[in-house]
Structures are given as structure tokens and as C-alpha cells.
Design goal:
Rossmann fold; 7 helices; 33% helix; disordered C terminus; 248 residues; alpha/beta
Length: 248
């Protein structure tokens, strides 16, 4: 997969990014009070979600049994995406299920970054049935190819290690060298403990690109993980801080 983008595409996305940057920096003075942006990162970059739909996501390894890992992750995404998609261009890559006889080729670009696109993304996830292996490095590469050369974000959700001979750490080093404006966040979901630590083997994607490594075992923890990695400041939702009233 190529990490190249044309100058025309870069210029177009740069214009959009600058518009969002200016909007995110806005500070309004309202009737003696101050309206300030809510806490959280501004949505200055397109973002791609790389969603694990491999066979292990069908597991029911929770104290209360079902729903499965996949269904719980899907529910969390369904709660979060409608709140962020009006503010940030989002896209989707999935891996695991697919038509190829080579299970390690089953990663798919489902949605390129689009504004206000929660419903189509969730529809793509809803149609999936967990199956196959974990070509997470291929999935991240596909996400990168769908993003502009300007600042961009990838959020990888995985419940395990690469199983298709991909090298996420080599990809991370390549990104650091040739696309330093890309940030990759890694959400490790229901990870197995290895040497006393919960690891996916993809943590280097985050550490090499300045991203976050977050682990989650419950829906609530997944909700927080998505908020940490994809959450936005919404200029339209300003909090007004009233100045103390002046007594006559």
C-alpha cells in the first residue's frame, strides 16, 4: 500500500483542516460573560477507525456471558459516533471477515473520511459477523491510504495480536519517518495477560507516533477509550462563564 497522496488532495484537505482549526480556536465574548471551548482535543484532523471483527471478537468471556466482545464494541461505537461525527470527518476500515481465501488479505476499506457519517459507518459494522484472523497491520495501512498527507488520526481497536505476519512496529517506524503528522491511538480490548501485562503487540504504533495506548474490558471503558482517542471540542457547544454580578 502506498502512503503517497497528490498535491491537489493535500491542498484540498489542508483548506478543510485550516477552517476547522480557525473554528476550534474561536473565543466569543457574550454579554459580560465568557464563552469558552469545552475541554478536549479540537477536531483538526480526519480520523479513521480500524475495527477488529476477527473470529476472537465472537467470544463471550464476560462475567454475565453474552453479548459478545463484538456486540459490546458495536454498542459502544453506536453510543459514541453520533456525538462526534458532526464535528469530525470519520472513516472505517475493518479486518477479519471477508471473501478472500487468504484470511490474511481480509481487511477492507469500508468508508473514506466523511462529515456527519455515523449512520453509514454503524451500518457497515452492523452487517459484519466476526470471523477470520487479525491482519491489523494491513488494516492500519489501508486506513493511512485513505487519509490526507496533512495531520490525521488512526484509532485501532484490537482484541489481540497481529496473526498475519505483519509488523506493526516496522510500520510505526516508517510513519515516524515519512508521515510524522499522523497519530495512531491503540485501544486494546479484552487483551490476554502476557508477563503480567495486557498487551496487543501493537502498542508501538501509538508510542512511535505520539498516540495513546488505552486498554478496555467493559463497555464503559470502551466508551471512555473512544472519547479519549476520538473526542472533539464542539465550537457549537460553548460553556458560558458568568462574571460576578455588580451590586448597585
Amino acid at each position: 500500500m502506498s502512503l503517497e497522496r497528490s498535491a491537489t488532495q493535500r491542498a484540498g484537505h489542508l483548506t478543510v483542516s485550516m477552517q476547522v482549526l480557525l473554528a476550534s480556536a474561536l473565543l466569543l465574548l457574550v454579554g459580560g460573560g465568557r464563552a469558552v471551548l469545552a475541554a478536549g482535543p479540537a477536531c483538526m484532523s480526519d480520523a479513521m477507525i480500524v475495527f477488529d471483527a476477527s473470529g476472537s471478537m465472537a467470544a463471550l468471556d464476560f462475567p454475565d456471558g453474552g453479548p459478545s466482545r463484538f456486540d459490546r464494541a458495536k454498542a459502544s461505537l453506536g453510543t459514541f459516533l453520533p456525538t462526534v461525527s458532526p464535528q469530525r470527518r470519520l472513516g472505517l476500515v475493518t479486518y477479519g471477515p471477508g471473501a478472500s481465501r487468504n484470511a490474511c488479505a481480509n481487511a477492507s476499506l469500508r468508508v473514506r473520511p466523511q462529515p456527519n457519517f455515523a449512520e453509514p459507518i454503524l451500518s457497515e459494522v452492523e452487517a459484519l459477523r466476526p470471523a477470520g484472523r487479525t491482519p491489523l497491520t494491513l488494516g492500519v495501512r489501508m486506513a493511512l491510504d485513505a487519509l490526507p498527507e496533512t495531520a490525521a488520526t488512526v484509532v485501532l481497536l484490537t482484541d489481540g495480536q497481529e496473526t498475519c505476519h505483519g509488523d506493526p512496529c516496522a510500520l510505526a517506524r516508517q510513519l515516524r519517518s515519512v508521515r510524522p503528522s499522523v497519530t495512531v491511538h491503540v485501544i486494546g480490548y479484552k487483551l490476554q495477560m502476557r508477563d503480567g501485562r495486557a498487551e496487543s503487540g501493537a502498542e508501538c504504533l501509538a508510542s512511535e507516533t505520539g498516540g495513546l495506548n488505552v486498554t478496555a474490558d467493559t463497555v464503559d471503558e470502551l466508551n471512555r477509550a473512544f472519547e479519549q482517542t476520538l473526542g472533539c471540542t464542539n465550537v457549537a457547544q460553548l460553556t458560558r462563564r458568568q462574571e460576578p454580578a455588580t451590586l448597585p
